Amino acid sequence: MNKVLGNKKSIAVFVLPAFLIYAVFVLVPIGYNVYVSFLQTDLMSPSKFVGIKNYVNLFRDSTFTGALKNNILMVIGSLIAHLPLALLFGNILFQKIKGSHFFQTVFFLPSVICGVAVGLTWTFVYNSEFGLLNKFLEIIGLESLQHVWLSDKNLALFCIIVVVMWQFVGYHMIIQLAAMKNIPSSYYEAAEIDGTSKWVQFKSITFPLIKPILKVDAVLIITGSLKYYDLIAVMTGGGPNHATELMSTYMFYQGFRTLKYGYSAGIGVILLILCMCSVLLSNLVFRSEPVEF
Amino acid sequence: MRKKTVAVLLTAAMMTGMLAGCGNSGGDSGKEASGSAGKKGDSDTLTVMCVGTEADTYIDAYNSIAEKFSEDNEYGVNVKIDFYENEQYKTKLTTLMASNAVPDVFFTWELSYLQPFVEGGKVTDITSYLEKDAEWKDSFADGTLELLSYDGKNYGIPTQKSLCVMFYNKKIFEENGVSVPSTYDEFLKVCDTLKNNGVTPMAMCGTDAWIPAQFVQQIAGGMAGDSLFQDICDGKEKWNNETHVKAAEEVKKMADAGYFQDGYIGMGPEESTDLFTNGKSAMYFMGAWDADKIQKSGMGEDAGAFVLPAYDAQYNNISVGSVDTSFAVSETCKNKDAAVAFLKFWTSQEMEEMLLYENGRIPADNFDLDTGKLTPLMAEVLTISNEQVGLTPWWDRQFGAGEGVEFNNTCVSVLGGEDAEGAFDGLQQFAEDNADR
Q1: Cα distance from B153 to chain A (closest Cα, Å)?
Q2: What gap in Å lies between CA B313 and CA A200, rounded to an integer?
Q3: Is any Cβ of chain A less than 8 angstroms from the Cβ of B4?
Q4: pLDDT tens for residues B21-69?
């Protein structure tokens, strides 16, 4: 077997099918998308080569820059909820407390539900007439804080970011918890004998040892919130007046509604570049030595 | 043991991703299959793609038209109509267009919606069919076929007409001692009286931007007539003209005066329709297509309709309206004769009468009506329809998803508190930028 795997040609044979599928469904479409982004086209009439004009127009388009800003807010919101907060929850459940398995399941539950169902549920929560949130504010006597949540252009995006935070905090908690459980317990036993506090244990043992996983997780969080689509589509459709538009929803709108496929492909390319930058950034922030247990 | 827990946890995490993925795409692919099944079937099947959901009462009527045509036609074809929800339909049609896989006959909106598909050579030119059958061609009301003509050639067949009317609750009007207004000031007075009596004057929906926008467009038409519409189409007038600003401010004033229900800005179209049909609001400005729903809601005799009096009385009876439920034949259709014959059958007097009497759909063709068979509400709507001297199509049909939808968004943002002048300046800027994208 080793002999077979030592041969470069036989490795190629094993890798080829996967690579072909990857190329056909990922690499080729990306390349085609970059090409389309230099055209002015509705994919039906003859297209016109316009160079980088689509990109110039994009950055002069206030809806697009608004969407970009919304995406950055989304990234920040998700990072807050899915790194420090998830880490906190994960660390609490990592301690041998009663019912930690139960809570793992509870925290994880929202991310099992399909995004559309989550969106619909929260639309009802935010509903201005019979929504839970406004009713709750009424009960505790804070009527002045009641809003038409999803139709207020200053609030709608934050309402959705809160849902995203809630939905995926358990998912990232599980990933981080898994990394923590991978650390040999002897380290903690030793620390305990030395009389260290829980905080020191976290700071000096847990955190450095799960750094590689946090790096991967950060990439997942950032790219996930850059290309976020479903809750926006279900809850507001990018409205009111593009106030909750994200790059992905605006890309859909420009492509499938106004038939400006070139313009929409331009948004796709910018999204791709941003996602790649986020990978580089996380690599930089979470630089760590490989660890072996 | 530890490794095992890790593995289980990570697998669970991975599964979530997959489940979420399946949840969405599974639904889609299911519909994909049902959509393409018709195409792959025997060549004797004529596939029609149409907008509609189970909640729409008209789909039974449409299906019965297809059945009747299938039973007996010289081409021996079977017609099968696939219905899709509105937003889903738009996405599906554009995708199918780009990949040359459009069904034989497809539902379309008029004007700018069909235009790119015509320019892309995806739609059959049906001028010759209309020329050959003058009787059929002449049966269409004036100006309806033109809305689906490009470069002087016909590409689509309108099956219905529609326009915006103000539905009202006769009982509420009576109880509050108000009558149908004949001037704009009277209309405002009616609203005011109702409001003071603790009745919500109008039901409005703010989540679907086109609903407040058609109201703004109606008022703008009453301020400057249909020449404003023509001038904007011809590029002689800008989007941020005074009339638009004034009309939007007028609607905002109504909102501030409490003429719409509380929290209307966050309410969907179903909620606002229900508000009206349940007798909780006195008026409801909507397309005539809702007449059937309102009639069948149990309001019965209480439902009435009038046309909103113009702000400037000289522009009375200029309404937002257009053709509706138009169909076009795709270029890839193998049996174009049968497809056109089906549309001819659909627009025949017999079928259009059935749609009118049973489903409240106003026909696009002219023929003598048996008014006795009409419901009282439909009779009023038809009278209004015949009285109109000018119809201006909805902006989002004239200009499609670009300027049209942005007009709708602009109206909503004015209602949301944005300065009207600034908002329409933004729309004009958008229109100028959009030309170059």
Answers
A1: 18
A2: 80
A3: no
A4: 444 433 333 333 333 333 334 458 999 999 988 877 788 899 999 999 9
Considering the domain B38-162+323-373, what is its CATH architecture?
3-Layer(aba) Sandwich (3.40)
Task: Parse chain A into domains and list their residue ranges.
Answer: 59-285
CATH 1.10.3720.10 correct for A59-285: yes
Nearest alpha-carbon partner for B414 in B271, B215, B277: B215
| Beta carbons of B409 and A240 less than 8 Å apart | yes
Cα atoms in the 13 Å half-sphere on the side-chain side of B177: 3
Return the CATH architecture of domain B163-321+377-434.
Answer: 3-Layer(aba) Sandwich (3.40)
Please list, in sequence order, all residues whose beta carbon lies within 8 angstroms of the beta carbon of residue B178, skipping any fewer than 6 positions away: B189, B190, B193, B194
Q: For residue B3, name the pLDDT band (cuts at 50, 70, 90).
A: low
Domain parsing of chain B, residue ranges = 38-162+323-373, 163-321+377-434
ipTM summary value: 0.80
Q: Which of B255, B177, B268, B173 is nearest to B215 (CA)?
A: B255
Chain B, nearest residue to A169 by Cα: B13
Quote the pLDDT of residue B2.
56
Q: Does B217 touch chain A (CB under 8 A)?
A: no
**A54 in contact with B at a CB cutoff of 8 Å?**
yes
